Every structure is written in C-alpha cells, then in structure tokens.
Amino acid sequence: MKFNRLSPAAIYLIVFLLVSSCAIFSKRHSTLPPAGTFGVDQTSLITQRDTSEPMRVFKTDSANDYTLLRSKSLDVDPFADSVILKKLIRAMYLTVTDSASLGVGIAAPQVGVLKNVILVERADKQGSPFEAYLNPRIIQYSKMKQDCREGCLSVPVTRGVTKNRSYAILVEYTGFDNKPVREMVEGFTAVIFQHEIDHLNGILFFDHLK
Ligand SMILES: [Zn+2]
Predict the structure, then answer these.
(1) What's the whole-model pTM score?
(2) 196 among known catalytic residues
(3) Strand 117-121 to strand 155-166: parallel, antiparallel, or no bridges (unpaired)?
(4) Residue 107 is assigned to a structural domain of this protein
C-alpha cells in the first residue's frame, strides 16, 4: 500500500527484528529444513537475483502481472519454509522501503510470489517498525467504517478514497513458532492490514471504489 508518508521508516528496528527472528530460526533448524511449500519458480524468483536489491513490483498495467495480481495466494509453513521465508521477507522489506516505492505495506503477490505473506508498517507502535505476518486472515470486522485515501505500489497513477474499510479488525496469523496469533488492530493500521490481505485474495483497492 502506498501512502503519503508522514515520517521515515524505522529501518534499524525492523532489521533488528528480522535478524533476531532469523537467528531464532537458525538455532532451531541447524540441520537442513524439510522440503517446503515454495515451488521451483518461486524459489528461483526470490533467490536468483542480487539479494541486496529490491524485487520487481508487479503492476496492473502489464497483462501478465495483472493475471498474477488477481490470483489467490497459498499458505506458508514457518518451519518447512523457514530459509526461503527469511529471504522473501528481506526482499519484500527492501522493495517496500525502496525509494521508487516507499509504501506502508506490501504483499508477496506484488513481487510475483503467490504466498500468504505481508509486511505492514506498524505506525501504531513505537518507531513504526515494518513487521511480517504469515497466513493472515481477518476473522472479525467492526461495523464502524473509516474513509481512507489509498494508493498501491502495483497500481500506477490511480488513487482514491475508500469508504468501506472497517475501523477495527481482529487478525489471526501464524506466528514464527507455527502457533496461531490473534491481534486487534484499529485506525490506519487496520486499513493497511485490510489492503494487504486483500492482495492475498486477488482483490485490489480500486475494487472498493465501485
Ligand atoms: Zn496494494
């Protein structure tokens, strides 16, 4: 999700969070992980590149990209996929914070990977860290709605005010320890979650403008 930024992203905090979570993984998986859920094409898209660079953002003005952006994503397994997930999250972070993008959130389909992974800038937390969420789903919506001016890294030019985003949502996702986590989020952060989780279901923000 693209938004007129209010403040610079908290790069150091997110890097710390990613590195520390990865450190936990590497301790738990000192041996080779079992085969994961990522296909050969997805794995090569993530790994066969300059890993210090952002990934290409898939856009709606390309027919092939559009087809992928309209597709549904599949769940990941934080244990079986730990190595490739670490690389994907790092790549998504580089992409959403890249000067050409500067978004407040990104979903894996936007870099061409149909997996249920999103990154959200948590402006509701101190330092506004970017955090990664696996297999996120919204299990409860507030009746109260909010207006929000939205844009999208994958949608050139178009912006618009959505009026049907819930003010608060209850999100359930898979923790990096493979246990389910539930969290209530509200305000602008809730809009980012709704926007990014839409991507995992092939829904784009302008669908809400109709
Ligand atoms: Zn978007």
Answers:
(1) 0.84
(2) yes
(3) unpaired
(4) yes
